[in-house]
Amino acid sequence: MPKSSSISLLSTFSSLDLAIKYALAEIDQPLLLSLAALTLAQDFAKRDYLSAEHIVAVLEAAGVAIKHTQVKGALSRAGAKVSRKVIDDEVHYRIMTSGRRLIEPLLGLGPIQVVYIKSGMPATARKHLGDILSSLAGDIRICDPYFGLRSLESISEIPISSNVRFLSSHTSERAPVLSGPLTDFKRERPNVEIRLLPPPNILHDRYILALDNLYILGQGIKDIGDKESFIVTISSSYAADLLKDLEVRFDALWITSTTI
Fold first, then answer.
1. 99, 126, 156, 226 - which has most CB atoms within 10 Å?
2. Within this chain, do residues 194 and 92 fall inside the same structural domain, yes or no?
3. Count of structural domains within the chain
């Protein structure tokens, strides 16, 4: 694996959501840990095959220690839970459906995931939201009825390589307060466009639509954590039609909106 790819893979595991890291730390069986590493690599880093050495390294990056001999021994007995391929004279492993079905419940993964946001914990809530936003790629559509300065802070978490469209219908910030930061933001992030729907149109839904997932927000981005709410993640593999319908609806509203 090229050095840059290794760094990217390790970075992915070191920045995993804290809940996933805690779940990994609770697993004490080498086979399950190895399957977890393969699953997370496929889901979060888009890497299908890892060697035993890679598995040890990524788990260490996530804060979990395991020996190379334990990984090789466990995967030698994994049967149809993994597939195997020799790359550069070394065996690499890929998670299979039977292995995924075994490990997903332990990691809290699956086609639908729910993160509970406690009331009065905005910093923690923003950490959860930031973890999601920083993992996004490609074209991103965000629908949120209310827009403000804190919205800009959150959008900044999205990788600069992504094109972002943020659709809103209200802003509680006064123009003199918003104009300066908004101008600075646009200068640094020209790939982000923010629009407002003209009256009397009002948005009610709060969601982030990405290539692979739909994220339904129980509370607006700028106020997340002020009240009890949830972030629900729905995989495109589970509800492709829903994601497509939302994409069409979003684009129809977008062309009627005006840039701020």
1. 99
2. no
3. 2
Task: Give the residue from 107, 136, 164 where a domain finishes.
Answer: 107
| Closest alpha carbon to 51 in 64, 63, 37 | 37
- Do 51 and 152 reside in the same domain of the chain? no
Residue after which a domain boundary falls, among 107, 130, 147: 107
pLDDT in the model for residue 3? 46
Enclosing domain of residue 33:
3-107
Q: Which of 138, 91, 134, 111 has its CA nearest to residue 43?
A: 111
Same domain, 231 and 200: yes
Q: Please report where in the chains the tokens 């890291």 appear, as a residue.
A: 21
Q: Which residues fall within 8 angstroms of residue 41, CB to CB, at 6 or more apart?
A: 9, 12, 13, 47, 48, 50, 54, 58
Distance of CA 50 to the CA centre of its chain: 21
Q: Mention every residue, 6+ apart, whose C-beta is less than 8 A from residue 179.
A: none
Per-residue model confidence as pLDDT tens digits over 164-208: 999 999 887 887 788 899 999 999 999 999 999 988 878 889 999
Element (H, E) at 154: helix 149-155
Rounded CA-CA distance 173/148 in Å is 6
pTM for this model (two decimals): 0.63
Weakly modelled stretches of the chain, pLDDT under 70: 1-7, 110
The phi-psi region of residue 79 (left if phi > 0; otherwise alpha if psi is between -120 and 50; otherwise beta) is left
